[in-house]
Structures are given as structure tokens and as C-alpha cells.
Amino acid sequence: MTPEEYERWMIRDCARCGRRASKSAEWSDGPICRTCYDRAMRVRGRCPCCDTDRLLPGRDTDGAPICRDCAGIVRDFFCDRCGFEGLLLGGRLCEHCTLADTVARLLDDGTGRVANSSSRPRLPSSRRRSATTTRQPPGRSVGTGGAAMLIPSAAAHQC
Ligand SMILES: [Zn+2]
Ligand SMILES: [Zn+2]
Ligand SMILES: [Zn+2]
Fold this sequence. Notes:
The chain has about 160 residues and is α+β, with helices and mostly antiparallel strands. It has six helices and nine strands.
């Protein structure tokens, strides 16, 4: 795409803020710039048209926020995982699910083991800390445990 084509296809006067910017969406009230798109993804309440409490990204002719169904917005904004209606990041996940995935990646120790544990992201940090400080290398704890068990029995034999 040449800069001229980009200008022709993507740059519009935003229907909501009037700024000349590349459009993020083309909704019933006109081209929507990135800023107004993000703002619309945070408007919730009771839609005056269908009386449903949900995301209100659209605008009626008076400029009042309305839901996407009433605004005729073809695209849906439901999170693929939890069904939350709002701003979708990356693929098709809401901010909450995207954050949970990021935390899961950070806590994964690289073995992939943690990735399958459902309790991982909610494990309290205090429990994690105590678990790591009291845990000893497996070889040594088995060795001392074995020796401790052998000594009394050997002593009993000699007596
Ligand atoms: Zn705008
Ligand atoms: Zn509605
Ligand atoms: Zn979600």
C-alpha cells in the first residue's frame, strides 16, 4: 500500500472527535479514530434502545451511547475465553484474560509444568516463598533421612 492509498483508504475525519486520523473502525455514526475506539470500548451501561445492561460502543442520532446490536455494528466484542464484552487485545481476549496469560507466562519455569496447573496464577506469594525456603535438595534430604533411620536400628543390634 502506497502512502497515497493509505491516505485515501485509512485517513478520515473522525465522526466523534473530528480529528483527521487513521480510522480504527467504520461504525453507523461514521469513521472512528483509535482514541475514540478505545474510549467507546469502556462505555457501559443500560442501552436506551433495547434496555440491556452491557457495552455501549455505538451512538444513536442524538449522540447517546447504545449497544452494538442497536448501533448495527457487525463486529462483536466478546472475549473468546470468558465472554466478557469490552476491549479485546491481541487475538480475541479481554484485558483480564490477556493479563492472566501474561502472568502465567512469567510464572512458567520453562518446563511447561506450571502451564497446566490451574492453581498457579492464584497461588499466594507467601505460600510460594515458604515452600521454596523449606524445600531442600532431594538427594540430601533422602540421605540424612535414611541415615537417621539406620542409626537407632544399628544401636539396638549392638545392645
Ligand atoms: Zn475520534
Ligand atoms: Zn441496545
Ligand atoms: Zn476474557
